Amino acid sequence: MTEVRRSEVARTRAWVLEAPGSDLVLTEVALSPPGPGQVLVRIRATGVCASDVHVLDGRLPKPMPFVPGHEAAGEVVAVGTGVDDLDPGAHVVLSILPRCGTCAACAAGRANHCAWAADLAGTGTLDGIHTGWHLPDGRPLHHFNGVSSFAAHVVAPRSGVVEIDPGLAFSRAALLGCAVATGVGAVRNAARVAVGDTVAVIGCGGVGLNVIQGARMAGAHRIVAVDVDPATLALAERLGATDVVDAAHQDVRTVVPQLVAGGVDHAFDAIGRPSALEDAFAITAAGGAAIAVGLYATDDRITLDAFPLIGERRLVGTYLGGVDPHVDVPALARDALSGRLELDALIMERSFEELPAAIADLRAGRTLARQVLVLA
């Protein structure tokens, strides 16, 4: 049963979802101080991701009521006992990949599949039992994968809080928690794209554009961007795509093998749609791989032709780009500060109060860039 600490509670604002399909409500909630191994963070910027919409719609079930949001940056306000490596005022990125360090996955070097973190995600708690906040009527308010960034303040596990260079603006740093880490990480960790390789990216939203950037930084020879929006394809070219395919008027399975004879070495589905993953597999060359980057619904299914497997083609899954947040996020921040990684072109800033409008625009496909809510 979920419990909540009630001593020394403070108040903060959070967008609360009572049930899948209902409206988000901006609510004043009671926030407990950080417990052992936890950190209180003031959210300064948080991105609006399609994964949030999946949860709002009930395609990815979560304990309710809860506060969504998982891509954020902020500053440390206070720390709980046992946290001696973060000071108040530190600039941090929040990650949905905390870790226990002791389970089988952590011991095997696969901390992004930590069993303890999976338990937090499933229970909507900070430690498997307790939440860090509750509603005005006393009901426990659940967390989203230890982050819940659609709030002015959050308590998070220390292992999910990553300190970064304070020179990077919060609105830019927020993207390192999901869109950038997932896209660039998929290139570096799942596909291991090498100099001279060929790449196709199906879906050039917040994640797909960062797959393109990752491929460019890796030295890919050809990078084919696939999308249905001409403005998005133009941005993809600016960020490194060498070729574009307008999927609204061109057949991906025909055009890509014409652009890159025989197909590409790495084809990424950055949408999270079964048909897109099937297309990605179909356009790979012999020895190539289709990489599933997008987030799929729990009941999604794919159908693949079996014969192409004789060409040693592979289907590869990845979760948040296979990153180690405490290694990769600071490195990505350095890439952004050095100019290797472009973030300004990815961002459309909005106010915290505009979250419902931002979600509506995301659903309707009215946004070119990643919408980032900026809190004063």
Concise structural overview:
27% of the residues lie in helices and 26% in strands.
Structure overview:
This protein has 376 residues and is of the alpha/beta class. It has two domains: 193 residues, Quinone Oxidoreductase, Chain A, domain 1; 137 residues, NAD(P)-binding Rossmann-like Domain (Rossmann fold, 3-Layer(aba) Sandwich). The chain is 27% helix and 26% strand. Strands 4, 5, 6, 10, 11, 18 and 19 form a seven-stranded mixed beta sheet that branches. It has a six-stranded parallel beta sheet with strand order 14-13-12-15-16-17, sandwiched between helices. Helix 5 packs across helix 6. The protein is globular and about 60 Å long.
Defining traits:
six-stranded parallel β-sheet; Quinone Oxidoreductase, Chain A, domain 1; 376 residues; alpha/beta; Rossmann fold
Walk me through the topology.
Elements: E1 3-4, E2 10-16, E3 25-31, E4 38-47, H1 50-57, E5 72-79, E6 91-94, H2 104-107, H3 115-123, E7 130-131, E8 133-134, E9 140-141, E10 153-157, E11 161-163, H4 170-173, H5 179-191, E12 198-202, H6 206-218, E13 222-227, H7 230-239, E14 243-246, H8 252-259, E15 264-269, H9 274-282, E16 284-292, E17 314-317, H10 325-338, E18 347-351, H11 355-364, E19 370-374
Parallel strand pairs: 1-7, 12-13, 12-15, 13-14, 15-16, 16-17, 18-19
Antiparallel strand pairs: 2-3, 3-8, 4-5, 4-10, 4-19, 5-6, 6-11, 8-9
Helix pairs in contact: 5-6
